[in-house]
Design the sequence.
DNA sequence: AGCATATGCCAACGCCTGTTGACTTTCGCA
DNA sequence: TGCGAAAGTCAACAGGCGTTGGCATATGCT
């Protein structure tokens, strides 16, 4: 009885929900379509998750899983961080869900803020970085912009980049946002 | 008869449409709400613009209006470009409309691609920049990411930046994307 | 003034949405 | 084998949507 019958249905619903929310955004992803993908009745979605909003909340759970940065050499911080973010991005489509929905859904926006400010800032504090909030914000602009162009807009030159090329291009940017003295020039 | 009565209604509809599309995104911005904002009947919107899609197409017209970059000193390119983009952003909310809608609306996404690849790339070509497409794409990631965090997500540390501070932070990034040799470090 | 045309309003349509409640089937345990 | 609960099905609801066509009003020209 460790695995009940209903658990698999719940999981199927959640997987379908993530796919639809990620592909269509919050409003265009309908309960009916999600249910059809999971091959069950729309009413089951309501029984298991209560409402579309609660289903979304469950589908948008995310942890950026930052590694410990305090023992990384200062001059490799950018590369390490960028590589982690990009790889985290591609192994888990939840961030694509958030990106696609945060634009019109306040709950998604709040969760995104929580990830990028609430999780990045304290990690930077622990790594003894000054002005951790501003730096977290700046890094968010580059990381989210990259994801937006690569996965949502699908700009050809950005889609074409390999992970290594992307790391090589973005690494120095992230590094500078992380370590450069306040408003600086080049 | 240079200015007919209907022209003002058309303009009122377009202004209301821009506001709603920019605030709510494509699907949540309803014809009825736009018409209410413009203080006219929903049927008028159809009469003047034919359909919601065509209204959107009219509301999302945008030109990035890049200045001529060929006579700007190489070491000021980043600052100049960033300042232009940010100021262009804030004087015209059409880009916010695009940003809010490109996520779920293919027409908006296509227009955004046209702006950032179709307008940036040839300008870089004229300024004798090598690999203009990749560089345009990279600059798009940083510019759009900044706008996304500042105007859509409203991340506090990014919202709090003044224009000058933003230029100081992003300028070197854009400059590097514009001039650094291919995949580089530092 | 009188008429044609431009402008605007109203009511309704067909469709799709999230959500609900009642009903049927399946399963696990005594 | 029975019985109760869990799991799944079905049809319908109320409301919002884009869109349409018919009708009233205002406008401008002769």
Sequence:
């Amino acid at each position: 009885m460790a695995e009940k019958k209903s658990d698999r249905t719940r999981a199927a619903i959640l997987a379908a929900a993530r796919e639809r929310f990620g592909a269509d955004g919050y409003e265009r992803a309908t309960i009916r379509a999600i249910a059809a993908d999971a091959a069950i009745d729309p009413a089951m979605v309501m029984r298991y998750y209560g409402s579309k909003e609660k289903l979304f909340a469950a589908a948008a759970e995310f942890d950026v899983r930052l590694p410990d940065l305090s023992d990384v050499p200062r001059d490799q911080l950018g590369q390490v961080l960028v590589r982690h973010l990009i790889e985290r991005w591609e192994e888990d489509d939840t961030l694509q869900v958030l990106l696609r929905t945060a634009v019109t859904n306040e709950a998604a926006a709040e969760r995104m803020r929580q990830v990028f400010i609430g999780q990045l800032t304290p990690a930077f504090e622990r790594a003894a970085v000054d002005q951790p909030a501003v730096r977290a914000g700046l890094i968010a602009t580059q990381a989210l912009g990259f994801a937006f162009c690569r996965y949502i807009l699908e700009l050809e030159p950005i889609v074409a980049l390999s992970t290594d090329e992307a790391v090589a291009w973005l690494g120095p940017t992230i590094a500078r946002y992380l370590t450069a003295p306040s408003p600086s020039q080049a």
Notes: The mean pLDDT of chain A is 94.
